[in-house]
Amino acid sequence: MNINVIIGIIMILSFVGLVWYCVKGFNLMVGFAVMATFWTVLALIGNAIAPTDIMEGQTLIDSLTYVYATGPANYASSILVNVFFGAFFGRVLMDTGIAATLIRKVVELGGDKPRITMGLLCIVTAIIFMSMTGIGPVISIAVIVLPILLSLGIPAPIAMFSFMGSIMAGIFGNIVNFNQYQTIYAGFNPEAANYTYNDYFTIGIICMAVSLVVVLVAANFNMGKKKTSHAWAAAAGSVNDNAPAISWISVILPVLGVVLFEIPIILGFCLSAIYALITTGKLRGTYSEICRLFAKLFTDGAIDVAPMVGFLLTLAMFNNAATYAAPYFTAILGGFVPTSALALAIVFAVLTPLGFFRGPMNLVGCGTAILAVVITTLPGAPVAFLYPLFAVTTIAPQHLDITQSWVAWGFGYTKVSTKDYMKMSIPTGWIVGVICCIAVYVLYGSLM
Q1: Residues with Cβ within 8 Å of residue 214, at least 6 apart in sequence
Q2: Shortest CA distance to 434 belongs to which of 402, 387, 389?
Q3: Which residue, 403, 410, 401, 405, is CA-closest to 428?
Q4: Cα–Cα 20 to 30 A to 39, which of 246, 313, 318, 351?
Q5: 171-206 confidence digits (pLDDT tens)
Q6: What distance in Å separates the CA atoms of residue 71 and residue 304, rounded to the nearest whole number?
Q7: How far is C-alpha 385 from the chain's CA centre?
Q8: pLDDT at 21
């Protein structure tokens, strides 16, 4: 048997092991660091026996540097600054009371009609998370939204599912997440660096709308099968005073700045944060007090995303190790990769559930190896078509998944069982994936 095939089989088995590891809820940062090491060692052994083009001319130190230094360094330079400033802006929205005010106004608008209020809250939550990111902001919004939904008699599994589903919808339009996935893609195809958020925006908004509709349909359908419960009391009165209406637009200002004026996203976050602070009257005091305010907001935001940062850096190691692993996966799977746009869209749609549990269709999981195989097999595939497909099979499953940090937190907060939640989350993620893959094909399939 060919050595490439043997190593490829070992890598696939370890791939399955990583999925099991993720499902069991073990530490992802450590898991991806271990996998990066294992695949690098296998690739080095394979290259020593039968040299591959991808390691041609590289010494042992060059290979180790590429995985353990170049990967995290490149990721940090292009992504982590966006993550930190996005978290800073999210902290501004929370501390100024803008996010809480929008939620309370929605509740007032919906009145005592649970289905309408749930729908409005999901829409506002999705819009908020087009800019916010990190477990800290999610929890800060969740402790406002979830008690309101539960106090309206919405069963806990449906309340949690609809809230997490609305975050998933917002992530389709989230510019920080776009940059994160784009950087992963660019690690295998440098042309992706020229693919901008503006290029992605149309399909991102379509997928966001599709996700909201599917989540709300699923939630309302399940509400008809469950008895209501009023065990919780709404905590809306426990948050800050109302933020003025003029400040509410802050929530989408970063996105508008990028889409309409093409300003850098970090500048967009900073200008939007300043606008939010000014319009809510929080930007006051002496120069030193204002400096301390900004330092505190940035520090709190950094704490919110600190666990994610460690995971992202080890994921960058894994991504570069997957580059070395690509020839061995291609030796086994390369012949199964479709070459037409329609066939690719169908395969991605059918395999969307494999994005759950950080599986092989998830770029923020095991999917980087599959991305490497697809790009190696189809080097001419347009980024404008292939990137949205991977974004769909990453975002839809991952942000409904029990391995997502804030979903795991939600189980403890609401006392919902994983079984009750997954009965709704997995079918919904799959349906969203199918519809969005169809949309990608309709919009960009002709580019293939």
Answers
A1: 165, 428, 431, 432, 435
A2: 389
A3: 401
A4: 351
A5: 999 988 998 899 889 888 888 889 999 999 999 999
A6: 23
A7: 19
A8: 80
